[in-house]
């Protein structure tokens, strides 16, 4: 008669496992099997492992309390059961190959070496342990767990406050530190942080830098062409293995990656623009603007305005001819005719053609085009004082200001801008270029840099304006920015507001008002100030000085709304005369 021992001896490996499993089940049913006692706090292991042998193995390894504490932390982060079981198994291997029983601090180098030994060991030499993924997982789980226990020696790079703030998980931080060009990437991150970029955006950009390095093979500083960035972003967007990104991919993601790459490579002075210039005849335009700025002494704002107008016209010219010496009066005439059809006012067309005529005159002197081309331009006729400066009434403005809500940071900023425009009648550019140093709080004076004539003026800082600006500076302005302009964007990267920004802000405020005015921009508030002053009895000279006009003729247009004197004229008995 054969004993159980003899029977087991002749079993195959699978038979032995089945024999063991059924025997344990029978003994457990008879209460004859010694089941390990589950200590208090070990419930998570009992949830993960149902077999007593596996449970006993996990309970018998060192650092039980530390492992259970970490697993509970992961469970609180809503990690799946499969991930928890995988982590628990790796923790046993990490303890074994790092000899963690003595509570010493572990270096990252030791962890990497332990992962290599584990991958080569006969005991664990399986497909999982021998491949790169298994080793990376060993390092990842080890870094996070030992970091959780404060048992990883910090490297010098980890002391960077920004890195520690952005990357909470040790394995992600380790990946950033171990990747090439760390100093160059830190330069970018600190530069963007100073611009006011949010931490969540910084995190995404830091991860994007690793993608950029991989797909550009940019592991040392070298010259990169702009055309390479387009190819790089295209290759990245077509990666099949990045399932979520491929599934949710948008054109905006691609542009964002290129944008990040351009900023970083420009900071490193290694970006070469090999693309076709977006502005036709760029060199000619640059030479003209240099002459207007350095030789004729035009202001920066005027140069910016002229550049915008000429960019538009040069692009239209390039659609008719390749070389600038091919431009003819007929081509210019067609372009002007098409511009008139866009619905622009005669005054706007006249201003644009004045700039174009100046450029063509300069081009003719440089022999870039045929002589007399500038003389062929016929601008629309503008009649002096043909328009009545329509403006909102003083009562409507006061009601709007009193009812303006300042609940958000953007509204707080916009209210301060509104106060400056309504009280002082400033131009939008004068508000945009207002500096922190232009406000003298002790003397209660505001220093206005006039956009035309470059003649600065001093105004008393009224309580309403002063309170609105102080409220903005304390509660809404991003004061971490190094910019000296008073009014900035509220979302990073922080920039100064320009004329268009001021117009958009005021237009958004005034458009819902049923005021029956043609323009809802900042200039209508300037009209309102002038109209109020002239109807109050101020002379044209006083109003001209107040508004910063160089010539009194500019102010004379407001005499058409001098209702006080117009009423006097209406009361004259013309029959006697």
Can you characterise this structure?
With 577 residues, the chain is an all-alpha fold. It folds into five domains: 1-33; 39-148, no CATH class; 163-272, no CATH class; 282-376, DNA polymerase, domain 1 (Orthogonal Bundle), CATH 1.10.150; 394-523, hpI Integrase, Chain A (Orthogonal Bundle), CATH 1.10.443. Helix content is 59%, strand content 2%. It has 29 helices and five strands. It has helices at 4-9, 13-29, 43-48, 52-60, 64-76, 81-98, 108-120, 127-130, 132-148, 161-166, 170-178, 182-194, 199-216, 226-237, 243-247, 251-267, 282-295, 300-318, 329-340, 346-365, 394-402, 409-424, 428-432, 463-475, 499-510, 522-536, 540-547, 552-555, 563-570; strands at 224-225, 271-272, 439-440, 445-448, 457-460. The protein has a three-stranded antiparallel beta sheet with strand order 3-4-5, with no helix packed on it. A hairpin with an 8-residue loop joins β4 and β5. α7 packs across α9 (132-148), α14 (226-237) runs antiparallel to α16 and α18 packs across α20. The longest helix is centred in the middle third of the chain and has 20 residues, at 346-365.
CATH superfamily of the largest domain: Intergrase catalytic core
CATH topology of the largest domain: hpI Integrase, Chain A
N→C terminal distance:
150 Å
Instruction: Supply the number of structural domains.
Output: 5
Give the uncertain stretches in residue-range form: 1-9, 33-38, 242-247, 566-577
Strand segment count:
5
The number of helical elements comes to: 29
Strand order of the largest sheet: 3-4-5
Q: Give the class-level CATH name of the largest domain.
A: Mainly Alpha
| Radius of gyration, CA atoms, in whole angstroms | 37 Å
Overall shape: it is: elongated
Average pLDDT metric: 80
Pairing-aware structural class of the strands and helices? mainly alpha
Quaternary organisation of the protein chains: single chain
């Amino acid at each position: 008669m054969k004993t159980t021992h003899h029977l087991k001896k002749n079993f195959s490996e699978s038979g032995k496992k089945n024999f063991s499993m059924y025997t344990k089940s029978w003994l457990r049913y008879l209460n004859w099997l010694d089941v390990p006692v589950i200590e208090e706090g070990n419930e998570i292991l009992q949830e993960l492992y149902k077999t007593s042998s596996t449970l006993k193995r996990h309970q018998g390894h060192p650092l039980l309390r530390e492992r259970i504490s970490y697993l509970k932390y992961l469970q609180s982060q809503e990690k799946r059961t499969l991930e928890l079981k995988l982590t628990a198994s790796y923790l046993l291997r990490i303890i074994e190959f790092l000899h963690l029983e003595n509570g010493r601090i572990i270096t990252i180098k030791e962890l990497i070496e332990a992962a290599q030994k584990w991958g080569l060991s006969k005991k664990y030499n399986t497909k999982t342990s021998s491949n790169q993924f298994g080793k990376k997982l060993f390092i990842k789980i080890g870094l996070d767990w030992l970091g959780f226990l404060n048992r990883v020696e910090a490297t010098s790079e980890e002391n960077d406050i920004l890195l520690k703030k952005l990357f909470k998980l040790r394995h992600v931080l380790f990946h950033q530190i171990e990747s090439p060009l760390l100093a160059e990437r830190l330069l970018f991150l600190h530069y963007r942080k100073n611009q006011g970029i949010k931490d969540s955006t910084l995190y995404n950009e830091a991860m994007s830098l690793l993608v950029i390095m991989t797909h550009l093979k940019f592991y040392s500083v070298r010259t990169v062409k702009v055309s390479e960035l387009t190819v790089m972003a295209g290759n990245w967007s077509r990666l099949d293995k990045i399932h979520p990104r491929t599934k949710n991919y948008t054109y905006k993601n691609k542009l964002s990656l290129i944008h990040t790459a351009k900023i970083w490579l420009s900071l490193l002075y290694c970006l070469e623009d090999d693309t076709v210039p977006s502005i036709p005849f760029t060199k000619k335009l640059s030479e003209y603007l240099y002459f207007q700025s350095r030789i004729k002494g035009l202001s920066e704002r005027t140069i910016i305005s002229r550049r915008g107008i000429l960019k538009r016209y040069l692009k239209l010219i390039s659609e008719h001819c390749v070389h600038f010496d091919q431009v003819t009066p007929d081509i210019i005439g067609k372009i002007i005719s098409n511009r008139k059809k866009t619905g622009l006012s005669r005054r706007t067309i006249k201003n644009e053609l004045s700039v174009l005529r100046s450029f063509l005159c300069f081009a003719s002197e440089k022999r870039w085009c045929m002589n007399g081309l500038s003389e062929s331009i016929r601008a629309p006729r503008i009649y002096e004082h043909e328009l009545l400066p329509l403006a909102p009434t003083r009562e409507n403005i006061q009601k709007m200001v009193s009812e303006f809500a300042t609940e958000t940071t953007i509204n707080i900023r916009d209210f301060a801008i509104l106060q400056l425009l309504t009280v002082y009648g400033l131009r939008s550019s004068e508000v945009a270029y207002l500096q922190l140093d232009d406000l003298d709080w002790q003397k209660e004076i505001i220093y206005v840099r006039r956009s035309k004539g470059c003649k600065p003026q001093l105004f008393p800082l009224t309580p309403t304006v002063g309170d609105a600006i102080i409220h903005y500076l304390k509660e809404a302005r991003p004061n971490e920015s190094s910019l000296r302009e008073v009014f900035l964007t509220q979302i990073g990267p922080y920039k100064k507001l320009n004329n268009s920004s001021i117009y958009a802000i005021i237009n958004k405020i005034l458009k819902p008002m049923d005021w029956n005015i043609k323009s809802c921009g900042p200039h209508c508030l300037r009209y309102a100030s002038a109209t109020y002053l002239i109807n109050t009895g101020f002379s044209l000279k006083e109003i001209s000085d107040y508004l910063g006009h160089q010539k009194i003729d500019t102010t004379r247009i407001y005499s058409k709304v001098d209702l006080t004197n117009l009423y006097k004229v209406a009361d004259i008995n013309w029959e006697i005369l």
